[in-house]
Amino acid sequence: MFRLLSLVPGRDFGVPLAAVVAGVPLPDAEDQLEELLEAGLLMTSPGDRYRFHDLLRLYAAARHRAEDGTTSAATQSRLRSWLLDTAVVAGRWYEPGFGTPPPDPGRLVALDDRDQALRWIKAEKDNWLSAFREAAENGEHARVTEVAEAMHWFSDNWVSWGNWTEIYRRSAEAAAALADLALEATHRNYLAWAHWACDHNHAAAVDAANRALGLATAAADVVQEAWAHVYLSWLRSAVDDLASAADHVSLAMELFDRADDINGYLTAANVTIRVLEKAGRTREALKTYQEVMDALAFPGNRDRISPSVRDVTTLVATHNVAFIHFNRGRWDAAVEALRSIRGQFEARGLYEQAGRVHLMLAHALAHLGKDSEAAAEYRAVLALQDRIPAAVLEEARTSLTGVVAGRPNPPTRFG
Question: Coil, helix or strand for 49?
Answer without folding.
Answer: strand
